[in-house]
Structure formats: structure tokens, C-alpha cells
Amino acid sequence: MTDDDDGIESTTSRCLSYLPKLEDTYSLWYKRRYMIVQREEKSAGFYNMRECLEISILSMDRSILQSLIDEARQSYKEAERKVVSVFSADTGSKWKLMTSRPKRPLSSIILEPGIKELLINDARDFLSSRKWYADRGIPFRRGYLLYGPPGTGKTSMIQSIAGELGLNVYIVTLSRAGMDDSSLNELISNMPNQCIALMEDIDAAITGVARDLSEPVAAEPPFLAGGSSDEKAAIAKALHNEGKRNDSQSRLSLSGLLNALDGIGAQEGRILFATTNNYQVLDPALCRPGRMDLHVEFKLASRYQAESLYKCFYMPEGPDDAADEHVDEGYESKRDSIDSDEPDSEPQSPSVSEDMPLLLLSPSASQQVTEAPRPPPFKTLQPGQRKPALPNQFLSHREALTLATRFSEAIPEGEMSMASLQGYLMRYKSRPREAVADAIAWVKKERAAKKDQK
Q: 12 and 192 in contact (C-beta within 8 Å)?
């Protein structure tokens, strides 16, 4: 049963399958009609099995069955609109649903100004220009190459774009075992008319891809010359085994990859995203317009990104409190009442009960208790949630902006990835002030770690 009667909308999704459990019979009522559903496998020749789905409805009106299928299809599509489905290929070159992830809003992606807008606007313009491409005889394809260091937000940006455009993601793994030119062409041709094809870390994936498989192979590598016969035999055997393993893993040629991207049999309507950490090693033939039309660099975090990320973590919800000086969070009123010796009308701290005789306390002890600031009542914590430290609670908008500026000043320009900054702030998710105070020490530690790796 397919859903090919919904026009353009159906091109973004694969065909639906309604599959109850095998060998079980389900009895239910649908619109006051008794219905039985059963799915089973039947023999269809030697070594072949055919699945059969039987739906029996006690009714004189055949439209009841069509109504059931339409209702199930609509429910599936409504649930699909809330997530991004990610597909990967199995060993038989068939697309299988790998996972479904919630759509990620563009506001959660923090990049330099203009990059998000450039990508999303260009992709939207492409999807709405099918007739423009057809009138001019241009293949209806668009390719994007996102390059930069790891952890700079390339994959996150692709996930967000997929959610904004309502497209599913199909991951093409070029280094998959058994991948060759024909299987790659089959995979790409089996994609829906509108989707995102993702080739991650394409620089690493095509390292072992041969540009011309017909090139002769040297009988003896130069570094074997001059060695003993035993050494030559051992090294030659190791190279032979390595070549066999690489051949079993991937037999994809660069010409096969290029033909799959923009050859005569290449799929149209899809958006290709390729990511790389090493832009310089890519073959110029792969990067030319028509295959990778737009190249966008993702750099290491700037101070602007560090400040924006801090705001994303700690900025209070709700409207901006322009008059922060009039907001009493509990500290100032307590300090004023203590310093002015005026009676405190609020309940006493649990450490000094009203029923406790004050004469039992020594003067020094009573002075210490009186001078200690009394914390405001904490909000109810969820099970397993750690109680935040007292000095880091109740951030106002003004203080959050100040701390964000101080945090960005502690982060060097273009040295840390956004992933590392996010990992650091995750350790201080309920301690915004400590995150700023410890930032300089963390930067020194990261620099030392990078120096040791070199």
C-alpha cells in the first residue's frame, strides 16, 4: 500500500507499510464494524517467501476499508512532521530507518552572523525553483560542502536545516564494506525526490578511493629495494593482506562517485551535504560547481559565539527586567534589616527557631548566626537533581549579560571549538558564576592538552 496520491508532499517521504506482527490475529472494532487483521508469510517459489496482509471487515460498504487506511496514513504523517527521520543503507543497499530525532530549531545553532541565513535561504530558494531549473535545462540538484575543524557545528546545522525544510536525512557511507560504483548508484537512485543526502567526513571516506582503477601497480615498492629476501617476503605479504582487506571494504572509484553525484543517472531533487575536516585534500573535480555548489567554512569559536552560547545556557526566561534594582531577590532586604537592627517580620532561619531560648547561645555564636545571610527558599527540585549552590542562583538579565561578556573575554578568539565550549558549560549548568570564574584555568588546561598531543 503506497501513498502516491498526495502530490508534492509524498515526494519527501518513503512509502508507508502497515505491518502487524507475524502469525498473530487481531480482532477489533472500527466505526462499528467488526474487523480482523492478520499478517503471514506464504511460500512463493523455491527459497522465496511472500508476505500477505489480510484485513477482513464485516460490512457491505467497501469505503470503510479505504477510510481506515487513509486515517492510519494521516496519523503517521502528523507524527512524522515533528521529527527528522534518519536513514542508512544496509549491506543489501536498501534504505532502513535508523532513528528519528526531534527537529532542532535554528535558534539553538550558534554560528557567525549570516552563515545560518545563507544556508537556509539558499536551500529554500532551491526547493522552490524546480520550474526555473527545468526551463533552462539545468539538473535540479544542489550540493553544499561544509568544511572546518571538528566540533564547529557542521552536522548540527544540517540537522536543523532538515527540520526547517521538513526533509529526511539519508546517510551515504562511502567507506561501507562492499561499497562499489554500482551499489552507490543504486542507493542514490532509491532516494526520494526531495531529501537530504549526507556524506560526512568525505575527506576520510575517499582517502582509499582510486582515481583510476586501471593504473598499473608497481611490482615492487621502492622501500623494498635493498632488503633481505625474508624482509621482502614479510612486507610483501603484509601489503597483500592489506590490499585484500581494503578491497573487501570498499571498491569505489572517484569517477563512480562523481557520476553518482551529477552523472546522467544521478537523482534529481535531492540536496547533498558533504562535510570535511580537511578541505585541502579534496579532489578539485569533487569540489567544482554542479557537484558542490556552495562551500561554507565553519571556524573555531569566536568571542561572539562564546558570549551567545553563555546566554543560551543561563539567560533567564521571561521578559527583560529593565528595573533590576527594584527586584528584591531576598538578599538586600535581609542585609538591610540585619544592618539596621529593625525587627524582621519574615520567619526566622531554621537554624534559630522561635522556640529556642537565645540565652543558651553564647554571644559569639549568636553574633555569627545573626550576621550570616539568610538564603531565600529554594525551588522544588526534581528527583536526582542537585541542589544549586546559593551564590549562583537568581541571575537577572543584567547580570547574565555582564557574565556573558566576561566569559567571552576569557575565551581566546578562534582556538576552542563550540563542542568543547558546550562541554565545559555543561559541567556548570547550574553554576553560571563559577563557569566564568573557572574559564581562564580551563583555557590554560585545554592549551596544555593540545600542546601535549603535538
A: yes
Q: Which residue has the higher pLDDT, 201 or 178?
A: 201
Taking residue 316's Cβ as centre, other Cβ atoms within 10 Å add up to 13
Distance of CA 298 to the CA centre of its chain: 16
Q: How far apart are CA 168 and CA 125, in angstroms?
A: 18
What is the location of CATH 3.40.50.300 in the chain?
83-211+230-297
**All residues at 6 or more sequence positions from 208 whose CB lies less than 8 Å from its CB, including other chains:** 175, 246, 249, 250
CA distances from 337 to 352, 370, 377, 386 (A): 16, 11, 18, 31
CATH superfamily assigned to domain 83-211+230-297: P-loop containing nucleotide triphosphate hydrolases (3.40.50.300)
Q: What is the pLDDT of residues 348-388, one digit of tens each?
A: 444 444 444 433 334 444 344 444 445 445 445 454 454 44
Is 187 within 8 Å of 89 (Cβ atoms)?
A: yes
| More confident call, 41 vs 442 | 442
Residue 221 vs residues 226, 227, 235, 237, 417: alpha-carbon distances, Å: 11, 12, 10, 13, 41
Instruction: State the pLDDT at residue 305.
Output: 95
Q: Using the predicted structure, report yes or no on whether residue 19 has a pLDDT greater than 80.
A: no
* pLDDT tens-digit map of 240-255: 454 444 444 557 788 8
Q: pLDDT tens across 23-59, in order?
A: 778 888 888 888 888 888 777 666 677 778 788 888 8
- Range 239-248 contact pairs with CB under 8 angstroms and sequence separation of 24 or more: 246/208, 248/177, 248/178
